[in-house]
Amino acid sequence: MAGMSLFRDDGVVLRTQKLGEADRIITLLTRQHGRVRAVARGVRRTKSKFGARLEPFSHVDVQFFSRGEELVGRHLALCTQVETITPYGGRIVDDYGRYTAATAMLETAERFTENEGEPAVQQYLLLIGALRTLATGEHDSPLVLDAFLLRSLSVNGYAPSFGDCAKCGIPGPNRFFSVQTGGALCPDCRVPGSVVPSPETLVLLGALLSGDWETADATEPRHAREGSGLVAAYVQWHLERGLRSLRYVDR
Amino acid sequence: MYEGVVQDLIDELGRLPGVGPKSAQRIAFHILQSDPVDVRRLAHALNEVKEKVRFCVVCGNVSESERCRVCLDPRRDPAVICVVEEPKDVVAVERTREFRGRYHVLGGAISPIEGVGPDDLRIRELMTRLADGVVTELILATDPNLEGEATATYLARLLKPMGLRVTRLASGLPVGGDLEYADEVTLGRAFEGRRLLDV
Questions:
Q1: Class of the A5-88 domain?
Q2: Euclidean distance between CA atoms A99 and A95, whole angstroms
Q3: Which chain A residues are within 8 Å of B184, Cβ to Cβ?
Q4: Is A55 on the interface with B (CB under 8 A)?
Q5: Superfamily in which the B1-35 domain is placed by CATH
Q6: Closest by alpha carbon to B121, among B150, B164, B160, B93?
Q7: Which residues of B fall below an 8 Å CB-CB distance to A?
Q8: What's the fold here for domain A91-248?
Q9: pLDDT in 10s for each residue of chain B, 199 residues
Q10: What SMART domains does UniProt report for this protein, alphabetically (chain B) (predicted)?
């Protein structure tokens, strides 16, 4: 029949919503099509063959059936076949701290990809990398979350500065920090409401943004906590509506 | 569009889960054509359920009195509590006829993305029930999906210092099915939870 097409893509399940008696609407962040919502029929029945594969955090290879020429169009596509690539859910849900951090990641990824069907490869790769790191448990979950949040801001064009002054560019370290102005500020550029975080906190945040885990892992908990607070404030500022799951993160 | 009360009825029915505008119209006309006695019985049942049914003060299950049938039954073992998400789950476990203990209904599962945290569930009430030391085993029977597992993990961590026996319902293959049709996640869990056959 005309106007029907099949698409195949791999993606991470961000969210599932119940639909009718036994179906679900699955929100995925895919490699080629960005955020996609699709209907998975009958997945809530115990006999469903792929219900278990479509749980949040799962990295899956999906075949979609669309009634239009595009994957994202007037009608929601259907998930017709699903294969697991990596079921991150199992390793994540075993640890409550990991679960809450990973949930905040999914919500962030969803919020940074508001336009469905628009490719967001960097965001996709960041999410896969962060879930993989979290599942191995090699770094503290709040640190993995903060690194993910900072890099998500960065790939979406909101990279904060933790060294050079965000206004005049004078090389760091700089003492002041302002969420509204984009990060670290020198004494000349400081704005009202600037905070003065400890220098170690700014070093940590810079390390998380650049992927210097050696420095990040060696940070004292109090600096990590202060860093988390700044990252949360920064993300909330740029996402307008706050992230719901951030306040449930178990630190 | 119909006029007045007929449309009101269709609108009200249309708000029920799984009832679309067409079904609502069909049910409305069925009611219009039914015997007045039948309709009155339906109306009475609707009123009664809202008036009489409340939640058990102990376990949170639906009940017609202050305490539910299970909590009042002296034959039920007070040392074992089965923790479930919804009253519907109590019915499901009761159907097995395997469980002789009591229940605790949480009222949902932890889902930060939906804004549901531990404080929104009846966890504090559960801790209160455990305070007197009568309970020795807790069976975590939350749903075998992500939110359910996360809730079980959270509870297990919370309960650890209390020295209770905390068990999680097994996950695995549906009885009467074929192994080859099982998905790898479920089959993997069945392997993890395998048991020793002692014959």
A1: mainly beta
A2: 6
A3: 53, 84, 87
A4: yes
A5: RecR Domain 1 (1.10.8.420)
A6: B150
A7: 18, 110-115, 117, 145-146, 149-150, 153-154, 157, 174, 177, 181, 183-186, 188-189
A8: de novo design (two linked rop proteins) (1.20.1440)
A9: 788 899 999 999 999 988 888 999 999 999 999 999 999 999 999 999 999 889 999 999 999 989 999 999 999 999 999 999 999 999 999 999 999 999 999 999 999 988 899 999 999 999 999 998 899 999 999 998 899 999 999 999 999 999 899 999 988 887 887 888 788 888 888 898 888 988 7
A10: TOPRIM (SM00493)
User: Chain A partners of B168 at a C-beta cutoff of 8 Å?
Assistant: none
CATH fold for domain B75-170: Dna Topoisomerase Vi A Subunit; Chain: A, domain 2 (3.40.1360)
Distance CA A152, CA A171 (A): 24
Residues 6+ apart with CB under 8 A from A109: A12, A14, A29, A123, A126, A127, A152
Cis peptide before A160 (omega within 30 of 0): no
Helix-strand-coil percent breakdown of chain B, rounded to 5?
A: 50, 10, 40
